[in-house]
Amino acid sequence: MSLLIKRGKIVDPASGCEEVLDIFVQGEYIRKIGENIKSPAKEIIDAEGKIVLPGLVDMHTHLRQPGREDEETIQTGTFAAARGGFTTVCCMPNTTPTIDTPAVTDYIYREAKRSGVVEVFPIAAITVGQKGERLCEMGRLKKAGAVGFSDDGYWVVDSNLMRRAFEYAKMVNLPLISHCEDPYLSRGGCMNEGYWSTVLGFPGIPQEAEEIAVFRDISLLRLTNSRLHIAHISTRGAVELVKSAKEEGLNLTAEVTPHHIALSDEEVKTFNTNTKVNPPLRTREDIEVLKNALKDGVIDVIATDHAPHAQQEKELEYSQAPFGVTGLETALGIVIKELVEPGVLTLKEAVAKLTINPSQILGIDRGRIMEGGIANLAIVDLSRVWEVKENEFFSLSRNSPFIGWKLPAKVEFTIFKGKVVYSQQIEVKVRGRW
Amino acid sequence: MRFERKDLLDLRSLSAEEINLILNTAASFREVLERPIKKVPTLRGKTIANLFFEPSTRTRLSFELSAKRLNADIVNFSSSTSSVLKGESLLDTARNIVAMKVDALVVRHSSPGVSHFLAQKLPVSIINAGDGAHEHPTQGLLDLYSIRERKGNIANLNVAIIGDIAHSRVARSDIWGLNKMGARVRVCGPPTLIPKDIEKLGVELTYSIEEALLDCDVVIMLRIQRERQKVSLVPSLQEYRDFFSLNREKLKLAKPDVLIMHPGPVNRGVEIPAKIADSRQSIILNQVTNGIAVRMAVLYLLLVHSSR
Are A66 and A115 in contact (CB under 8 A)? Predict the structure, then answer.
């Protein structure tokens, strides 16, 4: 197999490259990057006028397999990833059974190889069954391929246990990814507490539920000198805590989701259950702070928190519907529309937060374009506007708050290990297959 | 003007003109209720279903009688358990009832937004009969009607709403309605029962009932539910009574012709002593009567008047 990508503008934040060059791919690897490459190739993609990015890396995905294959499978989730330009997704452990043993970790790898179209790195649980009671076998889990630890969906409430987790994780040199939420303070809440929860009569989740948790985790990080990654940061106060901890020199990073950037809690007034996410959509003021934090580098990563839910689960009373929205297929478009087009981030800065930054946090050799490197690429037409349509998702679920939105940056090709895993042809073939 | 809506979901989105239209329409139906034969043929051939997913006697009966006074057919569906637990989704339940060819659904549910959700999904008129702590628009309208009936006008009145504001859909509908009609609204209750940023709805906030009552033209007392003490929202009902119950002494702070209102059901002896609930200033039962006229008006405007 060989593939020649002609005249695309490479945007590779890892190397700083932003040039129009050809890329010659042979087998799974990039053989050559240069001007006017003449090597004969089986397949040629004319990328003139397009940008060529490292395959995007999502460090926060829910693939639902094993256990909830009616919502998403590794196959459908990786197809959705490919459609969104992602070639690497890191799946969260809240499956059934939980990813908390080497056997389940191994299952994810094998299933991804068997049915996936891009690669999947599992994130294992911090505590057995995500119950917050006993530490997982972090050493054996790392050997089985876990790239990080998280009880995502739950905060580890027991501070002593979390301290041990921080300490032990140093041995395997992997970060703890913390879902920061004081469950007592957030109990019963469906949306951000503030003007809109008061208007709509919903029990609110105060911003402090997140901030108390972030503060404690930073305190334990200081105590243990370990590594911490804050998942889906959403409030002004949490950003300030991360900023000052970074200034102090602590080893921590943070991510934000596209939906927390694009949507405020006012959207809940539609009672569309696709505005129900955890952490909840926050205020416009929070969004401004999040944008500045992205710009200043306080927030390192943009991650989707892709959380597929079956239609019948979301087509309910708002208070009964589960939290979460899909995100893999809309993430890049939202990032370009909300962050790059308004000038909050340069294209290169935005791409870094979707590629090299998450790769470095998880210690995986991904998210860059270089000779000899794995040929994971996304070819994107920045100016091609497309409409997000409910019946066109590759994901098995359709719980997107962006249905009906017109987004820029259409992904035209996604290439995983030298093979085209998304293109217009594949779009037509896959659409409506499940 | 015409009432160009499919549904009545909340007072927040209604204009003052629309509210006036409903109140004026209600006034003409109010007269029907005083006739020996309390029935007009306005909605003959129309079918309305009450969908009550939460226990209610007053509101359900009120809608039922309103429909009957207008000659509509009305059927009742009540379920105290969540439809989810029963195994059928709310939407499926509603779709099934709509498939039986009804013209309107009157919906009561404990979750905010249920009426809005159904209104988006279904072609029939939806009337919100209370959705969680969100809104109870017909209660808000009947409160406006009752105030206007006694005071002649709503603009520039001082209205105090006292009690559990956080969990009250009536408070929210009253606040929107009163504000749109030009009243000055104060809310009062213990801080644990006041939702965040309530002042941004255009009300004054005080934790002191004396302050709330000062020069008041209308006082709306809200029910305090016994369950609130279990989750430490109030330490005890006794303490709540000491601080937030009306009494003769406190009432002296209000204007002499102050109206006392309550959406019911009343906890006599908790938020309001029996003597005051039954006093000449209390219009609690007038509210109930006016509720029929207001609901007749709403049904008429949605099902007949609207050119939709």
Answer: no
Is it true that domain A2-52+375-398+409-430 has CATH number 3.30.1960.10?
no
Confidence check: pLDDT of A289 > 60: yes
In this complex, do B195 and A198 lie within 8 Å of one another by their Cβ atoms?
Answer: yes
pLDDT tens column, A211-250: 999 999 999 999 999 999 999 999 999 999 999 999 999 9
Q: Which domains does chain B carry? A: 16-134+288-305 (3.40.50.1370), 137-287 (3.40.50.1370)
Task: Give yes or no for residue A346 having a pLDDT over 90.
Answer: yes
3-state SS assignment for residue B9: coil
Burial A92-125 (b: 16+ CB within 10 A, else e): bbbbeebbbbbebbebbbebbeeebbbbbbbbbb
Nearest chain B Cα to A315, which residue? B91
Q: What is the pLDDT of residues B214-259, one digit of tens each?
A: 999 999 999 998 777 778 899 999 999 999 999 999 999 999 999 9
Q: What are phi and psi of A268, to 5 degrees?
A: -65, -20
pLDDT score of B306: 67
- What angle in degrees, to the nearest 10, is found between the helix axes of B16-32 and B284-300? 110
**Complex ipTM value:** 0.94
Of the candidates A38, A75, A45, A39, the one whose C-alpha atom is nearest the C-alpha of residue A419 is A45
Residues 120..149 of B with a Cβ closer than 8 Å to A: which? 120, 131-135
Q: Where in chain A is the domain with CATH 3.20.20.140?
A: 54-362
In A304-423, DSSP assigns E strands to 377-381, 386-387, 406-407, 410-416, 419-422
Nearest by CB: B90 against A195, A271, A317: A317
Burial class of residue A36 (count of CB atoms within 10 Å of its CB; 0-12, 13-18, 19+)? exposed
Rg (Cα) of chain B, in Å, rounded?
A: 19
Residue type, A14: A
Write the class of the CATH domain A54-362. Answer: alpha beta
Q: Is B169's CB within 8 Å of A193's CB?
A: no
Mean pLDDT of B13-37: 96
CA dihedral B179, B183, B189, B195 (to 10 degrees): 10
**Closest Cα in chain B, distance from residue A198 (Å):** 6
Concatenating the DSSP letter of every residue in A114-181 gives HH-SSEEEEPBPSBGGG-SSSB--HHHHHHHT---EE-TTS----HHHHHHHHHHHHHHT--EEE---
Q: Residue B4: which H helix or E strand, with range? A: none
Q: For residue range A24-34, what is the model confidence (pLDDT) as tens digits?
A: 999 999 999 99
Q: Cα–Cα distance between B266 and B277 in angstroms, integer?
A: 8
Q: Give mean pLDDT, residues A165-178.
A: 98
Question: Any CB–CB contact under 8 A between B172 and chain A?
Answer: yes
- Whether residue A182 is predicted with pLDDT greater than 80 in this model: the reply is yes
Min Cα separation A260/chain B (Å): 21
Partner residue opposite A201 with nearest CB, options B91, B133, B200: B133
Task: Write b or e for each residue in A397-414: b if 16 or more Cβ atoms lie within 10 A of its Cβ, otherwise e.
Answer: bbbbbbbebebbbbbbbb
What's the per-residue H, E or C state across A272-324?
A: CHHHCCCCCCCCHHHHHHHHHHHHHCCCCEECCCECCCCHHHHCCCHHHCCCC
Which of A151, A152, A300, A305 is labelled catalytic? A305
Q: What is the pLDDT of residues B255-284, one digit of tens each?
A: 999 999 999 999 999 999 999 999 999 999
Distance (Å, whole) CA A47 – CA A21: 10
Say whether A193 and B90 touch across the interface (CB within 8 A). no
Residues B113, A316: C-beta atoms closer than 8 Å: no
Out of A194, A195, A316, the one facing B84 most closely (by C-beta) is: A316
Contacts of A315 in chain B (CB under 8 A): 89, 91
